Amino acid sequence: MEEGVFSRILVPVDFSACSEEAFRVALSLARVFQAEVLLLHVVDTKSLTTLNMLGLALPSEEAGQRKRLRHQARLNARRLLSLEEAKGIAIRRLLAEGTPFVEIARTARTEKVNLVVMGSYGGQVGNVEKIFFGSTAEKVVRTAGCPVLTVPLPGRPRPVQSQPKEDK
């Protein structure tokens, strides 16, 4: 690939371990391609609406909830930006509200992103909605309009399997 193919890399994060690994991968790619990184967090307002509908939070408290979530996102983003791997890379923080995959795809288009790097799954694993409607990563792959690299959570290194020896 020629230099500059990926000049703007979008990294949506929910601050789960998997999305933080995706951020590290994006930083490595940004170094190789001398790219700008857009660090995006989407405050999932659907979750707030659901809590309000279930009576677990009062609608009058929604503005306060949003403010707290935005504040927490800024603190978490600051923590990511302070990583050693982030030094020397042009990184811009973005914060959006709405349905995560919609906002990620919208940001990819409006910011003219060349590549989206995201965790293959986020902090909410195993819910019923995922079973019926797919994960955020799957939806972004279908709607982003640019290449999407999904990064799994790093596990233990897989042992190298030796080839069976042939009998002579």
Give the topology.
Layout: E1 8-12, H1 17-33, E2 36-44, H2 45-53, H3 62-81, E3 91-98, H4 100-110, E4 115-119, H5 128-133, H6 136-143, E5 148-151
Task: Tell me what you see in this structure.
This protein is of the alpha/beta class. The protein has helices spanning 17-33, 45-53, 62-81, 100-110, 128-133, 136-143, and strands at 8-12, 36-44, 91-98, 115-119, 148-151. The longest helix has 20 residues, at 62-81.
Question: What characteristics describe this protein?
Answer:
168 residues, alpha/beta, Rossmann fold, five-stranded parallel β-sheet, 5 strands, 42% helix, globular
As for the number of domains, it is 1
* CATH fold description: Rossmann fold
Total number of beta strands: 5
Measured between the Cα atoms of the first and last residue, the distance is 46 Å
* Average pLDDT level: 83
Q: Kindly name the structural category.
A: alpha/beta
- List low-pLDDT spans: 128-133
Which CATH architecture is right?
Answer: 3-Layer(aba) Sandwich
Q: How many whole angstroms does the radius of gyration measure? A: 19 Å
- Count of helices? 6
Strand content: 15-25%
Q: Main β-sheet, in a few words?
A: 5 strands, parallel
Shape: globular
- The named CATH superfamily: HUPs
| The top level CATH class name | Alpha Beta
Q: State the strand order across the main sheet.
A: 3-2-1-4-5
Order of helices and strands: EHEHHEHEHHE
Estimated helix fraction: 40-55%
Quick overview:
The protein is of the alpha/beta class and 168 residues long. 42% of the residues lie in helices and 18% in strands. About 4% of the residues have low confidence.
